[in-house]
Amino acid sequence: MILLNTQIIDIGVNLMHRSFQQDRDEVVARAEKQGIYPLILTGTSLRNSMDASRYASRSKGKLYATAGIHPHDAKSCDESTIKKLRELASLPHVVAIGECGLDYNRDFSPRDIQRKWFIEQISLATELQLPLFLHERDAHLDFVSILKGHRQKINRAVVHCFTGTSKELDTYLEMDFHIGITGWICDERRGKHLRELVKKIPLNRLMIETDAPFLTPRDLKEKPVDGRNEPMYLRHILHAVAQCMGLSPEEVASATTKTAQEFFNV
Fold it and tell me: Which Gene3D superfamilies match (predicted)?
């Protein structure tokens, strides 16, 4: 892999995942050595968001965090949840509300509960004028319907880990949303369609992410022994995206970094 001097930002890292328990600091150091910084740590539950915020606070300017409740965890929400997310969001290193949205693929939380707490988090983001870090799986129609109902108040939103259809992408772009692309684009089985769709995304709406420890790029020449993805592989994803778009890696690196800096205000 060609190493570049250009900085790139990983907008989605599940760094508080248990698989990073033993070497979290080393993971961050390896990423920084590759010019991948800052990292945006994804909050997926109240406890996880608190942990991500606490860890990010140790490295000012190098790490940031989101605060939110993933639809899988919506069933754990109660009346105090939004208050606690609001408190987290007041911290300078917490830069977005999410990961929030709808997931009808696994239905780990009842769908009506998912919708309720998704709407609550949209309202919180609009109140605080923070970006939304969004998740959608097999729930596009309800997802878009809810977001359109709040569109005029939403400051900024990124559809994290986009893997959808051309029509879905068109809808998000028409709504002026940003798009996050992961190592899914490196999977010749599931991600083939993304290699064409990424060409449709304007550079000022495109951001890249690993979603580590998940979605390890399938075409890595030297695969991690434990199969764990980590932020240092973001440059591999960058090269895949650039190749698909017919652009240089430097151009895509510069553009996606600028877009992420403006989106998250970092």
Answer: Metal-dependent hydrolases (3.20.20.140)
